Structures are given as C-alpha cells and as structure tokens.
Automatic annotation (TrEMBL):
Pfam families: ADH_N, ADH_zinc_N. It comes from Saccharopolyspora shandongensis. This is NADPH2:quinone reductase. SUPFAM superfamilies: GroES-like, NAD(P)-binding Rossmann-fold domains. GO terms for molecular function: NADPH binding; oxidoreductase activity, acting on NAD(P)H; zinc ion binding. Residues 11-203 form the Enoyl reductase (ER) domain. The lineage of its organism: Bacteria, Bacillati, Actinomycetota, Actinomycetes, Pseudonocardiales.
Amino acid sequence: MKAAHISKLNGPDAVEIVDVEAPEPNAGQVLIEVHAAGVSFPEVLQTRGRYQVKPDLPFIPGAEVGGVVIQAPPNTGLKPGDRVAALSFLGGFAEYTVADPETTFKIPDNMSFEQAAAVPFNYLTAHFALQPRGRLTEGESVLVHGAAGGIGTASIQTAKAFGAGQVIAVTSTDEKGRTAIDAGADEYVLADGFKDPVKEHTKG
C-alpha cells in the first residue's frame, strides 16, 4: 500500500510517499480503509521529533482518519462496510490503518470522510475541556480563545450543544471573528485588550 512515512527528523520536507506492507490487525483491532486523514499540529511536531510521542524511525504519522471498516472484532458493534471516524494515533497517513474499537465511531451517511477525519482530536478535546475539566452547566458563559481554529470552532459548537448560555469567541482578526460567528459563537472580541469587552458582554 502507499503511505506517507518519516525516516528523518528535519521537518515536513522529510515526509515521503513509500510502498509498505498493509498493517495486520491483532485480534482486538479494527482494520480501516482510509479515505481521509486529519493533519494537525502534532504531526508537524513529529516531523521534527518534538512531540511527546516519539515513535522509532521510520514511522507512519496520522492520528485521525475517516474511512470504511474492512475487518472488526466480534461484539464491538462494528462490521465490514461501516463508515467510521477513528483515532489511529499513528499510521493514519496510509491506504489502510488499524485502530481500537473504543476509538472507532460510526458516522452518519451525510458526513463526508473529510469531515469525519476532522472530528476526533478537535471534538474530543473540546468535550474533555468543557465537561470533565470545565464541568460546564446549562446557562453558563464560555470564553473560547483561538476560536477560529479547529479546536476553537469545535469548542464553540460543543459548548452550545451542552447548553451554554453565551459563547464568546476571542480571535486575532475580524475575519476570524466572523468564522467563529459562523461556527455558532454569540459574540466575538479581538484578542488585543479582550478583557474589557468580555466584561461588557457578560455584564461583569
């Protein structure tokens, strides 16, 4: 199969397209035909050996994918042909990858594989920040910094889904502010001197 792999740590230019053997899932893993893979900041750091996870060289990066199940363990609710999003953690930049059933999620027919590949890191991070960590309750206000990026827009939408009363976006430009509004934010403020306008929007 074709895969993008990293054999030296000198930045994104080190990524090469190579022919490698397709992965063999163990008894507890899901084999996925990859249709789209998310590219996020950890992959950039991995090309320089600066991410907290440091695989032995050479390795195939790619932590999140959208694709179709080829093989799945029994009693997981997954079967061949299912359209899924998955956290592979490594190996996603290839025609096939493996993932654990616990990090493989069926997607609806109206979600594209590209959209699916953008879900795991962004939305699971937003969920973790707002619920287990932030303990968001219905009606509370949420302030989202970096609100026009992947995790920022996911945080806006997740906060709204959990019943936030007001979501205020903090962005560096008006253009990014409009992106945050399109994602569901109620208001946006510019990062330079953001505290005073936030106080106005929240009435102190």
